[in-house]
């Protein structure tokens, strides 16, 4: 299966991990986070990545959402500031 992965984050380098990736059937959003940290060397702790907003085909989704072929997963990190 193939999904499109997009990181919309200020704390991850632009373009890192964006594009189509091959996944196994039954892969969840949480699995993608673990894969992304290992594959792309993302230094953010998994606990911080889990605080992101997850959109599958522009619809909000939870960490346990099982991705389907041709889904588009957007990972949107919250902005901090003051």
Distance between the termini: 42 Å
The profile of the biggest β sheet is: 5 strands, mixed
Give the low-pLDDT segments. none
CATH fold name: Ubiquitin-like (UB roll)
**Total individual domains:** 1
CATH superfamily, by name, is: Beta-grasp domain
Principal-axes shape call: globular
Tell me the total number of β-strands.
Answer: 5
What's the SSE pattern? Answer: EEHHEEE
Structural class: alpha+beta
The CATH architecture comes to: Roll
The CATH class name reads: Alpha Beta
* Helix count, DSSP H or I runs of 4 or more residues: 2
Helix content: 10-25%
Mean pLDDT: 88
Cα-atom radius of gyration: 12 Å
Description:
A five-stranded mixed sheet has the order 2-1-5-3-4, with no helix packed on it. With 82 residues, it is an alpha+beta fold. The chain contains two helices and five strands, in the order ββααβββ. The chain has one domain: Ubiquitin-like (UB roll), CATH 3.10.20. Helices cover 20% and strands 28% of the residues. The model has no long low-confidence stretch (mean pLDDT 88).
């Amino acid at each position: 299966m193939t999904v499109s992965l997009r990181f919309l984050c200020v704390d991850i380098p632009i373009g890192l991990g964006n594009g189509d990736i091959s996944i196994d059937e039954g892969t969840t959003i949480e699995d993608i986070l673990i894969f992304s940290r290992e594959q792309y060397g993302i230094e953010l702790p998994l606990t911080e990545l889990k605080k992101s907003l997850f959109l599958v085909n522009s619809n909000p989704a939870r960490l346990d959402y099982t991705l389907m072929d041709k889904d588009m997963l957007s990972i949107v990190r919250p902005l901090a500031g003051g």
